[in-house]
Amino acid sequence: SSNVYECMKNETEVKNKLLPYTWIVVRIDGRHFHQFSDMHDFDKPNDSKALGLMNACVVALLEKFKDVIFAYGVSDEYSFVFSKTSQFQQRQGSNIVSMIVSFFSSLYVLNWDEFFPHKELRSTPSFDGRAICYPSTKILRDYLAWRQVDCHINNQYNTCFWMLVKSGKTKREAQSILKGTQTPDKNDLLYKQFGIDYNTLPAMFRKGSFIFRDKVEEIVQHRENGCGHIQKVQMKVIIEHCDIIGESFWKENPHLITCDN
Ligand code: DGT
Ligand code: MG
Ligand code: MG
Ligand code: MG
């Protein structure tokens, strides 16, 4: 009967509903990207074009889904942050996650040629996704810091590892050289053996990418007479590779995390 139907529907919706008044983070991650990166011969450890493709997809996603306030990503993963008060998809977790991963996967395929005009897409990229709720701004900031620390640790390790391998060490040898080393040891190794100052490597590799909307002032020519100009203030999606662990970025961009978000 229709009553049974209503019960089933309500129960499913209640179970799926993300806790009200909490930040929603949807994290996606490329499936089997170890294989995918090898198959497409991505530069190791970082491929600027592959990262650029990820970022372009995120920009398009922010343009489509206004409920996503900002996103942070590295490697084959991205975290999308929705406001505490967002009513996107009535906060149904499975709806939100499935929309984000399917849209993102399509964008990845759609934008492939722009970043790899001479490389054929040889398999079907797909992404897993999960939604997590964070009840306070502090915990959301901790989450983002955790992802950026992870970016740093992995990137530093991978940079050393691939420099050693490219210089003739086997993967096993490189692994054992790096075993138990700390951050200063790795910086030393890069500098002494390869003349690389880790801090001068591209910020996108070291810090990941933070993508958000910001006010951009544009000076446009006056239409009628061609002279004079009008100033337009627009919201634009922009990409930065900045430190999101400390206070300064958040102080400079107070609109990203506010009490009434
Ligand atoms: P998963 O997520 O469990 O399906 O497995 P994977 O293989 O996607 O592993 P994950 O997500 O832990 O690690 C990301 C992999 O993607 C890692 O093996 C390195 C690769 N990858 C990501 N970005 C780049 C890049 O820019 N260049 C290269 N060469 N590889 C990359
Ligand atoms: Mg994974
Ligand atoms: Mg992956
Ligand atoms: Mg990953």
From TrEMBL:
Location(s) in or outside the cell: Nucleus
Domain of life: Eukaryota
Signal peptide (UniProt feature, chain positions): none
Domain Thg1 C-terminal: 139-245
Segments forming domain tRNAHis guanylyltransferase catalytic: 6-135
Its job: Adds a GMP to the 5'-end of tRNA(His) after transcription and RNase P cleavage.
Similarity annotation: Belongs to the tRNA(His) guanylyltransferase family.
Protein's name according to its UniProt entry: tRNA(His) guanylyltransferase
Species in which this protein is naturally found: Coptis chinensis
Parent sequence residues shown: 270 to 530 of 530
